C-alpha cells in the first residue's frame, strides 16, 4: 500500500454544517486537496496546536500525549486509511520500542494527537482519488470566497487598530482573559500583536 503524505493547509468554519469546521489537507507532492468536516472541539484542539498556544488546563489530546509518554508509547504517524459511505477512517500508528500497533480513530482526533507528537500525516490513493479535489477545481471557489471574505472583514481593521494601540501590559491581561475564556482565536491575535513588539 503506497502512502501519500499530507499537510494541513487550512481550517475554517464549515458553510454547509453549522458548528462544524472544514480541515483542508493538501497532497505534499501534488495538487490535490482533501477536505474533512470536523467538530468544533477537534478544530479548536488542532488550531491551538498549530498556533502554539498553551491552554491553562490540558485538553483531551494533550492528556493522551502525556499518558502515552508516561507508558513509553510514541506515535510514529497518522494514516487516513479509508472512506466508507462518506465517513473517513484513520489509524494512529504507535510503538513502545518493542512492538508496533495501531489505534482506530476519527481523523480529527488522530490529526490533533499527531500534531502534538510532530508526526507526518498520510493517506492512501483510494481515499485521495475518491474524496480529493484537484487544485484547479478550487481556484474558482477561492476567488468567490476571497470576495466574500473581503466583504465580511471590513470591520476587522478597527479591531486590529485597537490592539495596535493597546499597551503591552494590557495586552498581557487581555491574553490571560482570552485563555481563561478559552477564546483561542482571540488569544492568537493578541499573541501575534505581542510578538510584533518583541
Q: Could you explain the architecture of this structure?
A:
The chain contains 8 helices and 8 strands. The protein has 2 domains: about 5-140, Bifunctional nuclease domain (Roll), CATH 3.10.690; about 155-195. It has about 200 residues and is an alpha+beta fold. Mean pLDDT is about 80; it is low at about 135-160.
Brief rundown of the structure:
The chain is of the alpha+beta class. Helix content is 47%, strand content 30%. It has 2 domains: 140 residues, Bifunctional nuclease domain; 43 residues.
CATH topology of the largest domain, what is it called?
Bifunctional nuclease domain
Question: CATH-wise, what's the superfamily of the largest domain?
Answer: Bifunctional nuclease domain
- Major beta-sheet overview: 8 strands, mixed
Number of helices: 8
Sheet/helix structural class? alpha+beta
Strand-residue proportion? 25-35%
Number of domains: 2
Number of strands: 8
What percent of residues adopt helix (DSSP H or I)? 40-55%
**Order of neighbouring strands in the sheet with most strands:** 6-5-4-7-1-2-3-8
Anisotropy-based shape: globular
What is the CA-based Rg, rounded?
Answer: 19 Å
- Unreliable runs: 137-158
CATH architecture of the largest domain: Roll
CATH class of the largest domain: Alpha Beta
Give the overall average pLDDT: 82
Q: Note the run of SSEs as H and E.
A: EEEHHEEEHEHEHHHH
- Termini separation (Å)? 48 Å
Amino acid at each position: 500500500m503506497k502512502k501519500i503524505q499530507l499537510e494541513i493547509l487550512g481550517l475554517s468554519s464549515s458553510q454547509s454544517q453549522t458548528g462544524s469546521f472544514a480541515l483542508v489537507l493538501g497532497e505534499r507532492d501534488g495538487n490535490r486537496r482533501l477536505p474533512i468536516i470536523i467538530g468544533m472541539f477537534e478544530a479548536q484542539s488542532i488550531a491551538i496546536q498549530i498556533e502554539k498556544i498553551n491552554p491553562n488546563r490540558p485538553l483531551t489530546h494533550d492528556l493522551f500525549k502525556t499518558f502515552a509518554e508516561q507508558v513509553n508509547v510514541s506515535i510514529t504517524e497518522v494514516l487516513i486509511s479509508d472512506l466508507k459511505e462518506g465517513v473517513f477512517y484513520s489509524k494512529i500508528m504507535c510503538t513502545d520500542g518493542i512492538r508496533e500497533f495501531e489505534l482506530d480513530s476519527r481523523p480529527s482526533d488522530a490529526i490533533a494527537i499527531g500534531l502534538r507528537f510532530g508526526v507526518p500525516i498520510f493517506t492512501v490513493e483510494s481515499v485521495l482519488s475518491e474524496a480529493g479535489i484537484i487544485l484547479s477545481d478550487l481556484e474558482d471557489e477561492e476567488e468567490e470566497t476571497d470576495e466574500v471574505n473581503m466583504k465580511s472583514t471590513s470591520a476587522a481593521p478597527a479591531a486590529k487598530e485597537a490592539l495596535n494601540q493597546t499597551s503591552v501590559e494590557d495586552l498581557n491581561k487581555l491574553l490571560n482573559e482570552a485563555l481563561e475564556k478559552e477564546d483561542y482565536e482571540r488569544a492568537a491575535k493578541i499573541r501575534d500583536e505581542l510578538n510584533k513588539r518583541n
